[in-house]
TrEMBL record:
It is an enzyme of class 4 (lyase). It catalyses: L-methionine + H2O = methanethiol + 2-oxobutanoate + NH4(+). The keyword Electron transport does not apply. Its cofactor is pyridoxal 5'-phosphate. Its EC number is 4.4.1.11. This is L-methionine gamma-lyase. The modification N6-(pyridoxal phosphate)lysine is found at K216.
Length: 399
């Protein structure tokens, strides 16, 4: 399948330039500066033979909205370019991307080794639902490569991690885990939602597949739901024509693809601002007498600080913290902010504050939270684009 509109640009262009221009030629669409939004569910063929050839994969072109759309194709080419992958698939949500991946590439009797700390819905899928279909998930501490070695079995087909992890900001050594996974003959999947390809490029460090909740930083404005997978062309073709076309149907709308393309144009500027403000706020919070711990890879106190500096361009906009007063103090903090917004999700222009144990990670029961390593009192902050001094005054004042 082709996006039918790519122009040839130098390979040496910088990230921001590629995020704005790659995969689209205005002159191919009557000079339209932005890619048109193709609002169509199906596509006409010149002949029966052409239709048959497209369905067989023998000819380029679009056949049906569930497996391709010209607006979506521009986004997919751009995401693949920015992540350094051969191809990409855009989906209707991050969970849609993950389920397409699992249902397509795994079968009953296969095993996944996953890091012990994952986004709540990812954990829910792995712990509570995949076993019903005969897919076993082993959880291990992937911040220690020896933990992966111990968890691998002959049935392991996939290793999955986030880095930094949601919500407690653990950092996994992508290159070290990739080397072990490769020797085991499994696929290594990294959820790169927290970093985006601007801050971290897992494929260059040895990962096989990258996933995103594009709802977050890639979109950047809290106005859409979307996901993405970046991998080899062979894997993406399987996901598109099996995972999306036949299994979960989680296709992205053309308009949501258009909104993400808009978001990518400012991704570098936004991530620079998120990261710079978060780094200062993390230091402010760590110094406050009411705070027991701050988890942010940019702090010297973070256990994987040196690793984060090696594999991330900047430390991102996510902060986790615990207060000396525990959960009651955390709830009081959330109830007393004036600028930060009490809401889940992340990566928006607005600063968002939430309580993972009762919100985004409520799929973990209390015993599971204890086993997987995060506390009931943890508070997560997605640092937005507001002025630093205003956010500092808001958070410290609420404390």
């Amino acid at each position: 399948m082709s996006d039918l509109s790519n122009r040839h640009l130098p390979n040496s262009l910088g990230f921001a330039t590629r995020a704005i221009h790659h995969g689209y030629d205005p002159q191919a669409h009557l000079g339209s500066l932005n890619p048109p939004v193709f609002l169509t569910s199906t596509y006409a063929f010149d002949s029966a033979a052409e239709g048959a050839a497209r369905f067989a994969g023998e000819a380029e072109g679009f056949i049906y909205g569930r497996v391709g759309n010209p607006t979506v194709a521009v986004l997919e080419r751009r995401l693949a370019e920015l992540e350094g992958g051969e191809a990409a698939l855009a989906t209707s949500s991050g969970v849609g991307a993950l389920t397409a991946l699992v249902w397509t590439l795994l079968a009953s009797g296969d095993e996944i080794v996953a890091d012990q700390m994952l986004y709540g819905c990812t954990f829910g899928l792995f712990e509570h639902h995949l076993p019903r279909f005969g897919i076993r998930v082993r959880f291990a501490d992937l911040t220690d490569p020896a933990g992966l070695e111990a968890a691998l079995s002959p049935a392991t087909r996939m290793v999955f991690t986030e880095t930094p992890s949601n919500p407690n900001m653990r950092v996994v050594d992508i290159a070290a885990i990739a080397a072990i996974t490769r020797r085991a003959g499994a696929l290594f999947v990294v959820d790169n939602t927290y970093c985006t390809p601007y801050l971290q490029r897992p494929l260059e460090l040895g990962a096989d597949i990258v996933t995103h909740s594009a709802t977050k930083y890639l979109g950047g404005h809290g106005d859409l739901l979307a996901g993405a997978v970046v991998a080899s062309q062979e894997i993406i073709d399987r996901l598109r024509f099996t995972g999306i076309k036949e299994l979960n149907g989680a296709c992205i709308s053309a308009f949501d693809a258009f909104l993400i393309l808009r978001g990518l144009k400012t991704l570098t500027l936004r991530m620079d601002r998120h990261s710079a403000t978060a780094a200062k706020l993390a230091r402010d919070l760590e110094a406050h007498p009411a705070v027991a711990a701050v988890y942010y890879p940019g702090l010297d106190s973070h256990p994987q600080h040196a690793l984060a500096q090696r594999q991330m361009r900047q430390m991102g906009g996510m902060i986790a913290l615990e207060l000396k007063g525990g959960l009651p103090a955390g709830r009081a903090l959330m109830d007393n902010v004036k600028i930060a917004t009490r809401a889940v999700s992340l990566g928006d222009a607005e600063t968002l504050i939430q309580h993972p144990a009762s919100m985004t990670h409520a799929t973990y029961d209390p015993d599971e939270r204890a086993r997987h390593g995060f506390t009931d009192g943890l508070i997560r902050i997605s640092v937005g684009l507001e002025d630093y001094e205003d956010l500092r005054g808001d958070l410290l004042g609420a404390l």
